[in-house]
Specification:
Blueprint (H helix, E strand, L loop, with lengths): L4 H6 L2 H25 L12 H22 L11 H17 L6 H25 L7 H28 L7 H34 L10 H17 L4 H19 L4 H7 L1 H25 L5 H28 L8 H19 L3 H27 L57
Length: 440
């Protein structure tokens, strides 16, 4: 077994990110072929119609793997390196089961697919029960509970789709997919938003800037809450759903107004990805809501502004940042990663510009290119060894801030005088989850 294998097996983001990127290329290639052959053609032996399969596999397949990779840094005690390979195989089994669901009992398909979500939720929730609630750990446990709640919304939305395919709730699959998209948007509003602001602030401090992003506690609190309300609102009449979408979109757009996006665009390709993704979150939600409450016929384009621009865009940026940081690599985008971002932007522009078959096909091609480039660009960090600060290919020697040694895998430089520089992941400023900073 090659040297990187042990670390590949004991760090959740490595196999899950790689599997998610490769699977997305395959899924989008199949979707593009499906468009060309006709959406109603039996390309796969799946119980779901083509549109529902496409939505499910990107929202719950890809989305579930990425969220698990972000939050599952360490395996539960006693399971060691077995946990993450087993979890990844369970996720792959879910993709296979969905692709051939017409040949399997519907409850079995649901059990395999939903089993991954249940394991991830249970692992993320473990810190809630690891110690008694105290004044010192109250905020940490509250944040953990918030993320577990988002995972639960994601799981329940997936379950709703399976209720359709099991014949329990016929015709509800598309609504379940929309609710799942809103759950992904909620994760972006909560985790992605705080990470975007934290990364921007840290980069500006490192650059000697003084006009830093301004924290707006009320907006930062209500933005994710209003976005989360979009999940149950997806089951309401269209105009009621639209009103909640407008509220969530406007709140998140107000949040990013205070984050110095202009500075990010000028100084960092990676930060640009975070800011563009979050802008698409606010604009996508708002445009979807506007279409729902008025006669404007922009709902498909607005939905993909959210799905591609925000959900795919922000998740791609997070995958880049956490993969590079945890592997001890410099926190800037390489050529392949820049290609991934550029191709995703082209896919987004094409997809929101119209519904013609040639446009949809072109968008699918660029989307597949984006994730192929992402897989290639992240391969050294995901498959290779962790680099130490100062060694070839590693982060430059630098300084930290605060208290401690500053040698964290996250790339933040820790909290004190030390090595690693101020290439912050921002994670330890956001969450108190297990392995949040991945400090060895």
């Amino acid at each position: 077994m090659f040297p990187a294998a042990p670390r590949l097996l004991r760090e959740g983001h490595r196999p899950l990110y790689l599997a998610a990127a490769v699977f997305t290329v395959i899924a989008i290639a199949l979707w593009g072929h499906w468009i060309g052959a006709g959406i109603g053609s039996p390309l796969l032996p799946t119980r779901a119609i083509g549109m529902d399969w496409h939505a499910h596999e990107l929202i719950f397949g890809y989305g579930g793997a990425v969220m698990a990779g972000i939050f599952l840094a360490n395996a539960p005690k006693g399971l060691g390196w077995i946990f993450f390979p087993a979890l990844t195989l369970l996720w792959i089994a879910g993709r296979i089961a969905m692709a051939m669901s017409a040949t399997l009992p519907a409850p079995l398909v649901a059990l395999i697919d939903l089993g991954f979500d249940l394991v991830v939720m249970a692992r993320v929730a473990m810190p809630l029960f690891a110690s008694k609630l105290t004044q010192e750990n109250y905020d940490t446990k509250l944040k953990t509970l918030g993320y577990v709640s988002i995972f639960l919304l994601h799981f329940l939305s997936n379950f709703v789709m399976h209720l359709d395919w099991m014949g329990v709730w016929p015709g509800i699959a598309s609504t379940g997919a929309m609710a799942g998209l809103m759950a992904c948007a909620t994760m972006n509003a909560a985790f992605g938003g705080q990470l975007t602001a934290a990364l921007t602030r840290n980069a500006m401090v490192h650059a000697g800037e003084t006009a830093l992003p301004r924290p707006m506690e009320s907006l930062d609190r209500w933005g994710p809450i209003f976005t989360a309300l979009c999940v149950p609102a997806a089951f309401l009449p269209v105009r009621a759903f639209g009103a909640v979408l407008v509220l969530a979109g406007a709140t998140n757009l107000f949040r990013i107004m205070f984050w110095r996006s202009g500075w990010a665009f000028k100084n960092s390709a990676l930060l640009t990805g975070f800011h563009l993704g979050f802008m698409c979150l606010g604009l996508g939600l708002y445009a979807m809501g506007l279409s729902a409450v008025t006669a404007m016929q922009i709902f498909p384009g607005a939905t993909h502004l959210l799905a591609i621009g925000a959900v795919a865009g922000l998740s791609m940026a997070v995958m880049m940042k956490t993969s590079l940081g945890r592997a001890g690599r410099p926190g800037h985008a390489t050529g392949a990663l820049k290609l991934a971002g550029a191709a995703l932007i082209l896919a987004l522009v094409l997809r929101v510009s119209g519904e013609k078959e040639v446009v949809l096909m072109a968008s699918a091609i660029f989307f597949a290119i984006a994730y192929a480039a992402l897989a290639v660009g992240l391969a050294p960090a995901l498959l290779g060894p962790k680099k130490q600060p100062g060694e070839p290919g590693g982060r430059p020697l630098g300084h930290g801030h605060g208290h401690g040694k500053g040698e964290g895998d996250c790339g933040c430089g820790g909290h004190g005088e030390g090595q690693g520089g101020m290439q912050s992941c921002g994670l330890h400023q956001i969450r108190g989850l297990q392995g949040s900073c991945d400090h060895d």
